[in-house]
Amino acid sequence: MGFCRRQLDRLQPLWQHMLEHPFLVEARDGTLDETVFASWLRQDYLFVRAALPFQGALLARAPVRERDAHAVAIHALQEELELFRERARALGIELEDVRPSLVNHAYVQFLLATAHGRSYPEGHTVLYVAEKAYHESWKVVREGLDASHPWWPFVENWSGEAFAAFVRDLEARQDRLAGGAGSALRTEMAELFETTVRYEIAFWEMAYSASGWPGIVRDWTTVEEEAEEIDAEGR
Amino acid sequence: MGFCRRQLDRLQPLWQHMLEHPFLVEARDGTLDETVFASWLRQDYLFVRAALPFQGALLARAPVRERDAHAVAIHALQEELELFRERARALGIELEDVRPSLVNHAYVQFLLATAHGRSYPEGHTVLYVAEKAYHESWKVVREGLDASHPWWPFVENWSGEAFAAFVRDLEARQDRLAGGAGSALRTEMAELFETTVRYEIAFWEMAYSASGWPGIVRDWTTVEEEAEEIDAEGR
Amino acid sequence: MGFCRRQLDRLQPLWQHMLEHPFLVEARDGTLDETVFASWLRQDYLFVRAALPFQGALLARAPVRERDAHAVAIHALQEELELFRERARALGIELEDVRPSLVNHAYVQFLLATAHGRSYPEGHTVLYVAEKAYHESWKVVREGLDASHPWWPFVENWSGEAFAAFVRDLEARQDRLAGGAGSALRTEMAELFETTVRYEIAFWEMAYSASGWPGIVRDWTTVEEEAEEIDAEGR
Amino acid sequence: MGFCRRQLDRLQPLWQHMLEHPFLVEARDGTLDETVFASWLRQDYLFVRAALPFQGALLARAPVRERDAHAVAIHALQEELELFRERARALGIELEDVRPSLVNHAYVQFLLATAHGRSYPEGHTVLYVAEKAYHESWKVVREGLDASHPWWPFVENWSGEAFAAFVRDLEARQDRLAGGAGSALRTEMAELFETTVRYEIAFWEMAYSASGWPGIVRDWTTVEEEAEEIDAEGR
């Protein structure tokens, strides 16, 4: 049995918990609040934008034969960002001046810190799990959402055949990387697999509950105001 | 006015909010639950342990004249970890097999991603703010806690004169780095300043409320069990 | 005057020295030995292949508005590698099992170490200078080489209008980055500018003199043999 | 047989070639030109200074149980730098305003690029080989040089018992890291082992022949002058 299958079996209850998250279930059933969806869209746009440097950091460490895959993924991310901008316009959602929530910020830091500071097979693990999770999560929504719904382009983007093929390719690479890894490294990869699922759940939870930063109720002076101030003073 | 003073002024309400966190106030007044303190100690041990690679990543990018300061800080962190282990033994607190909470994990990723992926002055900003925040936070506790209290060694460690001098030195370096930075970089540093304060507040909040991972109530199979399984199977 | 113009003025004698290198002059005049050209091609293929992780490392640290440029450059590098493979086939040159010379290996390490360990504007400096140098170097060859010559596709690739526009774009970015930098950072960028020119000259010199590794006359057991040995022993 | 022993056997002719380098043999026999030694000392001071960020980058990626070793090594490097400064004063050698030769610059970039961009076991390989090579190289000099000779403190520093124990410890760690590695990683480690020996030989060769930058005979305007110019103009 390959590494991915084995981990998905081991973490099955956690994975299932993710797929049953109210955000996905309500999106599927057409009962999800539009403002909740908008809040997800605004946060996820920031996340996907940060996936570009993550892919760059992976490419910087990828063995020769894995490099083209990252070059392709970088191109795909640019198209995905365009999808966000197009949908935001269609839905009247503002994408600028959004502060990432703690969970969003944290997940991005996790991607970057892993890609920069850990070995390539470890970084690839986080990439694979994040993409696999998104593929299966949006397949849940696909079960109920109509193709004419304004959210459909996202559903199609992540649950469609092109993305399915992309995830299968990642899975084959992931299994090969794990197959060539020593046991200590494979244990690290198993831990990162689980941590990534935990972040995926936390992300849906954050979007659903519109949570920002723990312990902070209102927003004090923001850095944007500060920046303007600096400009104004010519500092 | 130096960069640090200016930022502390700008973020004064947020900073004050941090210093009034129930964890600190109750620790000062002797009303903090011991299990809450133990939970903080277990999480913070993991955090301080992760500060060692953070210092390494900063040293890797430090200009020549800043390097010795990081070498000294690395030595100080080793002593701080020994303090944690000594106190844990004295208080009967188990330090092994602790899973970092999301906020703890996230804060560590933020340190590492910043040190690895951003410029040295940006990484130094996060270092300075985290140390300054800890210094002032534990000064709050010092106002009320008795020197004979078993938690006192932590209070003394972060609010004492040696640490105060360390923080003053960091502040002078930080002001010099910001003084030499262009305006775009200085705006990034101001943003990282604020983000670090937000993580500090989130950390106290996490310790106080014993929060783990959003959306996950119980713990499924953990990676430690998996590791044993792998050993058992000789994989 | 912009940063690039200023540096090119300052380093004019060194830059001119590069453009008058015998490799370029003889390639232009049709007197360059074919085996010397083949040796350059084999080494440069390895270098361009390593430029892909370099671009990844830059993308990983690029501000939002610089990211698309790196995504485009990554795509261009893939096409450039295809050009090398096509020309190698046409000229009967073997591209596999080539050990990088010290200068080639060193230049690649310089790219990677700068992108990983220094700030983005510093990494971008090395990128700009390397591309600018190649553009102008191959313009020297263009002055004399006939468009029907089998080496022409390389000449066209780096001295043609598409590449000229790419270099102009890099130069505008470089000037903007330097314009926003503080004086300490700008001094570092000036130093990296010069170091990159020195590596460019060393690279032509290495190709022209077919130099390998200083102090090593013949090649002892290579890692490829070792790898086969490991396979054979099942280690 | 452990990884290190196996590689040292495989690369025995190359290793022996290094140990018979004229620099070492003449230093042992008391026939090495003093200006050659001074040139080595000035270049190696720069190299050791750059070893500090290298150790930082390794610490940033080290598993928990390897971290203390790097903290110790960082402290040892600071003492080694003090030895260079003390000897330079005693011998009347100027340490400032030295431009690294290409080989020196390149070797440093190799250390940094490997530590930043490759996995921890790969970075550790370069560290081990560099230290092992220095230990054995200076043992050659020890065979002939008198303990009263002004160069002796360097001989003692690298060929003495304390350094021998340090190298044995590194070797045990290296063997353990290789033992836990998969075969692809182990092949990479074997290749880095050889490359490091090649850089060691190139370094002795550079010091012995006082080589600077290939293809560059005299030094044009240097960055130091430029920096002064910038100051003078108030830019």
Keywords:
homotetramer, mainly alpha, disordered C terminus
Biggest beta sheet attributes of chain A:
none
* Principal-axes shape call of chain A: globular
Largest interface, Cβ cutoff 8 Å: A-B, 48 and 47 residues
- The run of helices and strands of chain A is HHHHHHHHHHH
Ends distance of chain A: 61 Å
User: What's the oligomerization state?
Assistant: homotetramer
Secondary structure category of chain A: mainly alpha
Explain what you see.
The structure is a homotetramer of 235-residue chains. The first copy, chain A, has 235 residues and is an all-alpha fold. In chain A, 76% of the residues lie in helices and 0% in strands. Chain A has eleven helices and no strands. In chain A, helix 8 (152-159) packs parallel to helix 9. The longest helix of chain A has 27 residues, at 183-209. Chain A starts with a helix and ends with a helix. The relative contact order of chain A is 0.16.
Q: Helices and strands in order, then pairings?
A:
The structure is a homotetramer of 235-residue chains.
Chain A lengths: L2 H8 L1 H8 L2 H8 L4 H26 L7 H25 L10 H16 L2 H23 L9 H8 L1 H19 L3 H27 L13 H11 L2
